[in-house]
Design brief:
Helix content: 10-25%
Keywords: Flavoprotein, Signal
Structural class: alpha+beta
Organism: Bacteroides muris (ex Fokt et al. 2023)
InterPro entries: ABM_dom (IPR007138), Dimeric_a/b-barrel (IPR011008), Flavin_Rdtase-like_dom (IPR002563), Flavoredoxin (IPR052174), Split_barrel_FMN-bd (IPR012349)
Order of helices and strands: HEEEEEHEHEEEEHEEEHEEHHE
Shape: elongated
Family: Belongs to the flavoredoxin family.
Strand order of the largest sheet: 3-2-6-9-10-5-4
Number of strands: 16
Number of helices: 7
Cofactor: FMN
Largest sheet: 7 strands, antiparallel
Oligomer: single chain
Radius of gyration: 31 Å
């Protein structure tokens, strides 16, 4: 009996070894994700909103353009539908201006994008002057680039103007203390194509290639004769305490990091009653304080927490020993 069983097992082994093994034709599992495939949607938005200026048949014309790009470090791309009246003027002169749109000129920029220069004279929509390279420059635009067209790449529906920048004009209020562009001051309007919406730029959230480091703090102004030392005593409704502290932490961090006149913003809560918060604030001058309370981040804090605050007392203080200066303490 044992021999019979052993013989049967041997036969099964021989048979199984003689059967060719089929390769696994099933594809490896694709990583599961909750992302939805939107197909070949162009999603590189938002983009800076611009108004292109050019002369067409001897007359200045303006056109709002949302499709711009960077080619290397010395070329930019302006992509414009072939149907636009402005294109022919650019092809003839080989030059144009690119004017960044601020909130102040957004309404006019929107208008010049809604009517055609072939039927409407748009030359006087903006106050302008002729730049050094011979193109119209919008006076109220915070930043304008005069460009020479070096190549034109045509697709089925678009003329794509590849341009070299000749001159760049920046308003003084968008420059930092070193005369360089400061995009936290410039704050250009952004354009989002799928929903045809205008967006605003936000705060700096970090420095490129340095995200493992704490964001740097700006250089601080010295305390002047009209500097302010203040205790802000705030009582918050208990149900809003966590939400309030998020607002307070954000405004303190941004203020200290970006405002040269904000010297100290140090918040503490009572151990017995954490809803009672006291903030030690010092400002280099009264002007620095006025600038602070007008800032976008402070207004976001102020308007966002109005209903959370039960009481607020602002108590200005006199330093007993001015030699013991308070410097850059973080909240």
């Amino acid at each position: 009996m044992a021999k019979t069983i052993l013989g049967a097992l041997s036969l099964l082994v021989i048979i199984s070894c003689s059967i060719p093994v089929k390769e696994n034709t099933v594809q490896p599992n694709i990583m599961e994700t909750n992302k939805k495939n939107l197909g070949n949607l162009l999603a590189l938005y938002p983009k800076p909103m611009t108004v292109v200026g050019a002369e067409v048949e001897g007359k200045v014309n303006w056109l709002v353009v949302g499709h711009t790009g960077v080619i290397g470090h010395d070329r930019i791309l302006i992509s414009m539908s072939k149907s636009h009246y402005t294109n022919q003027g650019i092809k003839d002169s080989k030059r144009l201006s690119i004017n960044l749109v601020s909130r102040e000129i957004l309404q006019k920029a929107d208008y010049v994008g809604s009517v055609s220069g072939a039927t409407v004279d748009k030359s006087e929509v903006f106050a302008y002057h002729i730049g050094e390279n011979g193109t119209p420059v919008i006076d109220a635009s915070p930043l304008t680039m005069e460009c020479e067209v070096v190549d034109i790449y045509e697709t089925e529906s678009f003329d794509n103007f590849i341009c070299a920048i000749v001159n760049t004009y920046a308003a003084p209020e968008v420059l930092d203390n070193n005369g360089k562009l400061d995009y936290t001051k410039l704050k250009p309007v952004l354009f989002e194509f799928p929903t045809y919406s205008y967006l605003a730029t936000g705060e700096i959230i970090g420095k490129c290639l340095n995200l493992d480091k704490r964001p740097g703090m700006c250089a601080k102004e010295p305390m002047s004769a009209d500097g302010i030392v203040r205790l802000s005593k705030i009582e918050v409704y208990p149900q809003y305490l966590d939400k309030y502290m998020k607002y307070a932490t954000e405004v303190g961090e941004i203020s200290l990091r970006t405002e040269s006149g904000v010297l100290t913003m140090y918040a503490v809560g009572e151990k017995e009653n954490p809803c009672k918060v006291t903030i030690l604030e010092t400002y280099a001058s009264h002007a620095a304080y006025e600038k602070h309370i007008a800032s976008e981040h402070f207004q976001k804090y102020k308007q966002g927490t109005l209903y959370m605050v039960k009481s607020l007392v602002l108590s200005d203080q006199t330093p007993l020993n001015p030699a013991n200066k308070l410097n850059n303490f973080m909240q």
